[in-house]
Structure formats: structure tokens, C-alpha cells
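G., the chain you wanted modeled:
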Amino acid sequence: MILAELRESLGARARDWAKAAGAPLPADLPITVPPPKMQADLCLPWPLAMAKAARKPPLELAESLARSLTGLIVLEDARPSPPGFVNLRLSNSALCANLKAVTLSPQDYGRDKGGPARQVLIEFVSANPTGPLHLASGRGATLGDCLVRILRRLGRQASSEYYVNDAGNQVERLGLSLHARRHGQEPPEKGYQGQYVTDLARSFPAEADSWTPQRWQQEGIKALLATHREDMDSFGVSFDRWFRESELHVKDELKSTLRLLQDRGMVYEKEGAVWLGTSGAAESEDDKDRVLIKAGGTATYFLADIAYHEDKFSRGFAQCIDIWGADHHGYVPRMKAAIAALGHPPESFQVIIHQLIHLFRGQEAVKMSKRTGEFVRLREVVEEVGRDACRFFFALRTPDSHLNFDLELAKKQSSENPVYYCQYVHARICSIFREAEKQGLFGPDLPLPGPNGSFLTSPEERALLLKIAWFPEVLKDCEKLLSPHPLANYILELAGLYHPFYEKCRVVDPQQPQVSRARLLLCAGVRDVIAQGLGLLGVSAPEQM
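Predicted structure as C-alpha cells:
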């Protein structure tokens, strides 16, 4: 991978340069994309970061850094630029060598071999088993599943988990609501009112008429959880573990977690209740203390959540990432305070909050589901527009941005639809290879050639070569930002760069076999990177459309 090799080479040269400049090298050495007017491939802003410590003008440092980079094989040029940048141009031969490496092993492209092999647990969706999964769960599922896939590609030990709240008042109310609806009665106060409750209650066999509310609770959870599993399977999401809250109670983990907090001096009693005393702690992000055990002796949901997270750490996970909906925003500070109270470092626990989805059909807002009368089910949208469109649309935006989802746009088979636009490029390249085989330019006995930069020199070809080289860096951006949106937008940009290449550079040309086969290699690189990128997003890469 050319940029990884370049970063290593640059680091070695930069250490000598920094020593000569009389200042320590900054810990963060970013490599950025310069503005188009610079006519460069990469940009190093390092002299600007060094200037104050070195007590030298940044442009002078940029000039000395550019000189120190002379002779690096992968570089064609290194030039200083005001006020203190070094602009780099990569050699065509190095870009083509990177291209060939991609086509030889697409499934390994982007792996961060020197990166941390830490164990990461990502918990997402975790909807209460008291109703169907709604559309927002699809956004959380996309975020979590994509991150797990991307982290695994990078070489991290990432696991996925779905937390099932199958204990407490909510599931008790579900049982009472089902029992009431089965007998033609109104659900109790704070019970569940949706049409799905009535439909579910009526779906059970005749013997259910004699079930107790507790039996209704058990069967209701079982049935609704089965629909959650079905919805996640159809959405292309699998979990390493479905962790039930009831497991914590069976193993008395709430009590053991409470003892741990007591031993650490983090709890106290007041007015007959047991409290977590974190508001006065220097490292606490919560502004007040929270009840763990109510005056009547009942444990709160908060204590169960703390016990669940302690269980995560006890299983050996060094980093726990939770993905929550917008309505849980206020819960973040208290959970962070609880993690600190358990003695875990702050960076070991992170929360991603994803914002709401506003559903449209063209210009008209879709307010509710016709089936439930309350909310839009994920299953309904997937059935209408398909899994690929859902996942790609969800992945395109940052988690903290509100998402306007247009059902009509998601179904369009045109370049207006971003997922169709990307998939179409992949399918078009596959058709090019079929034609190339007919013309005798490619086949089982005629594999793709080795890299030859002399045949790929046009601006359109170079733009594709450089974009392909950025793929590993994009995956690292996803890890850093804890979001798949850099990858989704990268695929869209790569597909956009392919169109001018396709218009200006004839690929299948028996009259110029060497040029044609070199361009086939470039097409293969684009095809493979798009396929790998879409796969990491849980989106298909069709060969025909």
C-alpha cells in the first residue's frame, strides 16, 4: 500500500529533518489532500506545526523538508509552498505498483498490519423486545455493522453485540398488554397501545386464552425478539452475541457490581436508597448522583446497565462502543461517570449518538406507518426500497446529522440515486471485461499485465490511480471518526472519477493491445475497490444491472 509505505519513509526522513531543525517532531504527522490549484497529490503541513518550537519561519522549514525528501523512490517531486507546506507528487510507477497489489489481493487491501490489535466490542440496536424494530434501528444497525466490518478489515479484534432488556417493568407491561388485548380489554396504564400488540395477541393458539400475564410476557418477548432477528438477518446484520439482561440477574452480577462500587467508595445510602456518588468526583461528567437501589429494595435500570458494562470489561474488551438513538443523549454523562466509578479509563468507553430520520416520498413527508399507526417499521422500508439503498443512504451521513430519507430517490435506477450510481460503475466494468474477453484482450490464459506507468498517464487515469491509493487511509478515517460516512462518500467520489475516464479513454481497443490491457488493469482496480468498499458497508456489488 503506497501511502503506508510513504508514511513510513517520510517518518524516517522527518526525524532527521526535525533533529537538524532543532525541534522535536510532532506526534501527529498528517498527510492531506492539497487544493486542485496546487497540482500536487499530497500535502505535508508539518513545517507549520514545527515553526514555533524550531523558532524558524515555516516556509524555511518547508524548503529544508522538501530537500530532505529528495530521492524517495515513490516521489516524483517535493516542493515547498507558502506559508509552510510541502506538496508531493507521487511517481506513476509507484501508483501502478499499488494498483497491481490491489488486484492481486483485493480482500487484504486496506489492512493496517502495524496497527493496534485491541479487542473492541460494539453494541448496537439493542431495542427493547416490546415492539417491532423501527426505521431508526436501521440507522444504528448500519453504523454498528459497518464499523465492525471496517475494524476487522483494519485488523482489529471487533465483536458485535445486541443487548436484550428482557427483565424489568417494561416487559411486565408487555405481558399485561398482550393479556388484555387477547381478552378484548384496554391495556393497563403505561401499557403498550400499538396495533402490533393486538395483532400479536391474536396470533397465538387457542390455549393462550388461559395463559397468565407472566406467560404472555415470556411468549411475547420470544415472538418479538424473533422478528428482531429476522429483521436484522434481512438487513445483512449478524451479531456475535445476543446478550440478555436476565443473564445478569441469574449470575447475581448486579450485586457483585454494587459491591465493587462499594469497595471503591463510590456509593452511599440516603433516604433508604443506595446512590452512586459521582457528582463530586473530578473525572465525573455527570452533574448529580443517581439512584442504584430504590428505597423499596428494587434495583434501577441504571444499576443493570452498569453491571452489563462491567461484564463487557470482564470479558477482556479493552474498548466498549455503544451506539444509541437520539433519545438517549442525556444518558451519556451518567454512563461515562459510572464507567469511571468502576475504575476504567475514560477512553475505554465511547458512545455514538445517531440522530433522527425524516422519511419523505418525494417532497411529501411520511409521518407514520399504515400497518402500526405509530411508527415506520424498518421492515416496511427495506421491502419497498431494498437493503442496499437503506444501508448506503444511512452510511452517507455523519451519525450526528439528521437524515432526510427519500423513498422515491432510493428506488430510482439512475445516476440521481447514489447507491445505483456506484453499483452501476461496478456492473459497467464487469461488462467491459466480458467484452475484452470476446476481443481476446483478457481471459483465463491471458491474465492482467504487470504495472506499467507509461500507459496510464492521462489526467483521468492518474486521478483514478491516486484515488485508489487513498482507500486504506479512508478506512482509518472511519475508525478515527467512528463512522462509515468517509467510506460511503469515497466510493461515490471514485465512481464519479470513473465516468470521465470512461468517456475519454477507450478501454477495449484491439488496435492498441498494450494500452488496452493497462487500462483493463486500472478498471480492475476500480472494480475491486468499489466491491470491497460496498461490501464493508453491507451493500452488494452486482455484475449486471
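The longest strand covers residues 157-164.

Shout if anything looks off.
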